[in-house]
């Protein structure tokens, strides 16, 4: 659910197609075609083979009916952090007086909302930028432009209760 509570699983037999897109500091989205009806605002969790969870928010649907009136919907689902932080306005200016480390800037831009916390930060760059009257999502983009690094998220999941933690990570670099 939007609150993170577990609602059930999509039966793999009901998934007709799925396309996952992930770009470093760019688009992270899932487009899924299924016979199960998904509500706008619902969250989809996907676990990668290495145990990493990704959370996506259902924001758009193109529904049609196949023969026999079985519903088929194609759902567009961006990374949940994008949906969550786009609706939060921040008015912070980390490091504009005295340069601050990337971890301080990340903490500052996340301080105006409750769903996401600062996670792992290996980026030790210092800098400063105005993030005044922007969405937290736009401010995160500014942070990456000024301090550098690569954004990722860590989603903690309980199979009983659903999502239990959401954190934003900022790495100097991931992988090779």
Describe the fold and architecture:
This protein is α+β, with helices and mostly antiparallel strands. 16% of the residues lie in helices and 43% in strands. The chain has 3 helices and 13 strands, in the order ββββββαββαβββαββ. The chain has a 4-stranded antiparallel β-sheet. Strand 12 (150-158) and strand 13 (162-171) form a beta hairpin. The protein is elongated, with a radius of gyration of 18 Å.
Number of strands: 13
Number of helices, where a helix is a run of at least 4 consecutive DSSP H or I residues: 3
What's the main sheet like?
Answer: 4 strands, antiparallel
> If you average the pLDDT, what whole number results?
89
Strand order of the largest sheet: 1-2-6-5
Structural class: alpha+beta
Distance separating the two termini: 36 Å
Helix content: 10-25%
Overall geometry comes to elongated
The radius of gyration is 18 Å
What fraction of the residues are assigned to beta strands by DSSP?
Answer: 35-45%
What is the ordering of alpha helices and beta strands? EEEEEEHEEHEEEHEE
Spans of at least 5 consecutive residues with low confidence: none
List descriptors:
43% strand, alpha+beta, 3-stranded mixed beta sheet, 176 residues
SSE diagram, text form:
Blueprint lengths: L14 E8 L5 E7 L8 E5 L5 E5 L2 E6 L5 E8 L1 H7 L2 E4 L7 E2 H9 L6 E5 L4 E2 L3 E5 H12 L2 E9 L3 E10 L5
Parallel strand pairs: 9-13
Antiparallel strand pairs: 1-2, 2-6, 3-4, 5-6, 7-11, 8-10, 12-13
Helix pairs in contact: 2-3
């Amino acid at each position: 659910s939007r609150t993170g509570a577990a609602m059930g699983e999509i039966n793999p037999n009901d998934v007709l197609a799925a396309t996952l897109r992930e770009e470093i500091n760019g688009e992270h989205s899932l487009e899924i075609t299924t016979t199960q009806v998904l509500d706008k605002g619902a969250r989809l969790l996907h676990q990668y083979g290495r145990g990493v969870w990704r959370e996506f928010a259902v924001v758009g649907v193109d529904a049609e009916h196949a023969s026999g009136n079985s519903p088929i919907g194609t759902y567009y689902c961006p990374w949940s952090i994008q949906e969550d932080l786009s609706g939060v306005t921040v008015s912070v200016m980390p490091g504009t007086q005295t340069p601050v480390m990337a971890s301080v800037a990340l903490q500052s831009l996340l301080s105006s909302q409750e769903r996401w916390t600062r996670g792992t930060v290996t980026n030790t760059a210092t800098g400063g930028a105005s993030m005044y009257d922007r969405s937290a999502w736009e401010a995160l983009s500014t942070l990456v432009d000024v301090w550098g690094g690569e954004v990722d998220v860590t989603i903690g999941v309980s199979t009983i209760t659903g999502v239990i933690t959401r954190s934003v990570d900022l790495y100097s670099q991931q992988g090779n």
